[in-house]
Every structure is written in structure tokens, then in C-alpha cells.
């Protein structure tokens, strides 16, 4: 079994090497025809038939698509309690160039990251494969100290984009997803902090992999984390 896992890891890392970005690739502007190029992309917001996140409001434009790699964080009140979420932390990498050039690879990357163990920074370093598969790091995702408000900060071209958000909608990940995957989500601006958001109106969490806690806290620490990877689609 160990030999099989090593072989699987090697094959997945090879896929990352083959599809990782190259300096010879066109820039985002060249791929997508400038700022308006991503508008032609129509992602799926439906993890399963009949379960669809609502579309962005009229006039919203897709700005960037990023790979998020990090942890979903939980706390336990007692061994028999159900783990309670206390936020998340993730590093964000710009994978926009794959949206048009290779969407099939794009949607498989979160699960591939989890299968290959690249969610672990130490594993990534030991395997000589960068955490973001060679794509540029452009931001972070955290929660505010109260662990209730999702926060995104992105460097996009010469601008700093921010979302102080709230959950608007959510649906379970499809049955075919990586085992234990968190819900697909639509996030919007927090109604009581709307002026704190800059350049971001919606963030969609799609094609999730991992992040879901065990059913109970038995055998777990009072606070613990679960690794995850996902696509975040950012709209202004």
C-alpha cells in the first residue's frame, strides 16, 4: 500500500509539473483580451442537479480565479460534541490562466493538491514542489478575530482587493468530490461592514477538496484543523 501511495503521489506531482505555469505562457491580458476577457467564462455554480448557487448580480464581472490552500479550523466543547467551525486560513494563488486554457485541469487541481499532500507546506518543500504549483501567490484568506467574518485580501495588478464578507448561500459538495469536502459557498459583502470591502462584491467557493471535520470530537484536541483546497472565483 505504501508503494502504491508513493506511485500515486509521483504521478500527481508529474501532472503538476506538466501543467504548472511557464514564463513562456501569455500574460493574463494576452490570454483573455484584457480586463474584459474573463467575462466570457460561465462557471458552474451547481454542485449537484437542482442545487445551484445563485448567479452574481447583473453588472458583476469576474476579476480573478484563485486556488486556496489551507485549513478549516474547528473547536470541541466535549468529546461527544459536534466540532464547531471557528474560521479558516488559506494562501491564495492566481490560476486564472487555466480558466480558458485548460478548465479540466483547473477543476481537478484542488483534489490533486489534497491527494498529493501538497496542502502541507513541509511536504511541499520536501517534494521540491511549490505549495501553489508554481502559480503566483496573490493573497490570503482568514477570518476576523471573532471567527465569524470571512476576510479576503488580494493583490490584483496594481490594486489591493478586499472582501469583508458573509455567507449568502451554500450547498454540499458533489458525491464525486474528494472525501470529506466542505460545502460550495457564495459569499458577499457583510451588510454591517460593506464599506470595508474594496473591489470585491462576491467570492464563490467551488470545487472544494477536504476541510470537513469528523462527526464528533472523540479523540480530538480542543482546537484542531482540517486541510483543504478549493477554487475561489472573485467578482467585482
Number of DSSP-assigned strands: 8
If helices are DSSP runs of H or I spanning 4 or more residues, what is the number of helices?
Answer: 5
Q: Give the overall average pLDDT.
A: 82
Radius of gyration, in Å, reads 18 Å
Element order, helices and strands?
HHEEHHHEEEEEE
Largest β-sheet summary: 8 strands, antiparallel, barrel
What spatial form do the alpha-carbon principal axes imply? Answer: globular
Cα separation of the termini: 47 Å
Strand ordering within the main sheet:
1-2-3-4-5-6-7-8
Low-confidence stretches: 1-11, 16-34, 124-129
Strand content: 25-35%
Which class best fits the helix and strand makeup? alpha+beta
Query: What fraction, in percent, of the residue positions are helical?
Result: 10-25%
List the helices and strands and how they pair.
Layout: H1 2-19, H2 28-32, E1 62-75, E2 84-94, H3 97-101, H4 103-116, H5 121-126, E3 137-143, E4 150-156, E5 159-171, E6 184-189, E7 202-210, E8 223-235
Antiparallel strand pairs: 1-2, 1-8, 2-3, 3-4, 4-5, 5-6, 6-7, 7-8
Helix pairs in contact: 1-4
Amino acid at each position: 500500500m505504501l508503494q502504491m501511495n508513493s506511485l500515486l503521489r509521483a504521478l500527481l506531482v508529474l501532472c503538476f509539473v506538466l501543467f504548472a505555469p511557464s514564463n513562456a505562457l501569455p500574460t493574463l491580458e494576452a490570454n483573455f483580451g484584457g480586463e474584459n476577457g474573463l467575462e466570457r467564462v460561465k462557471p458552474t455554480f451547481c454542485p449537484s442537479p437542482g442545487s445551484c448557487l445563485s448567479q452574481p448580480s447583473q453588472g458583476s464581472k469576474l476579476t480573478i480565479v484563485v486556488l486556496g490552500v489551507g485549513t478549516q479550523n474547528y473547536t470541541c466543547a466535549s468529546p461527544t460534541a459536534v466540532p464547531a467551525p471557528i474560521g479558516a486560513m488559506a494562501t491564495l494563488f492566481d490560476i486564472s490562466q487555466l480558466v480558458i486554457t485548460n478548465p479540466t485541469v483547473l477543476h481537478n487541481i484542488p483534489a490533486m493538491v489534497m491527494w498529493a499532500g501538497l496542502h502541507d507546506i513541509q511536504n511541499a518543500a520536501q517534494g521540491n514542489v511549490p505549495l501553489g504549483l508554481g502559480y503566483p501567490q496573490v493573497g490570503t484568506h482568514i477570518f476576523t478575530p471573532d471567527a465569524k467574518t470571512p476576510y479576503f485580501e488580494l493583490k490584483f495588478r496594481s490594486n489591493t482587493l478586499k472582501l469583508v464578507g458573509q455567507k449568502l448561500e451554500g450547498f454540499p459538495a458533489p458525491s464525486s468530490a474528494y472525501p470529506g469536502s466542505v460545502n460550495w459557498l457564495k459569499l458577499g459583502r457583510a451588510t454591517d461592514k460593506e464599506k470595508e470591502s474594496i473591489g470585491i462584491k462576491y467570492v464563490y467557493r467551488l470545487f472544494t477538496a477536504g476541510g470537513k471535520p469528523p462527526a464528533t470530537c472523540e479523540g480530538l484536541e480542543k482546537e484542531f484543523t482540517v486541510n483543504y483546497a478549493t477554487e475561489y472565483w472573485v467578482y467585482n
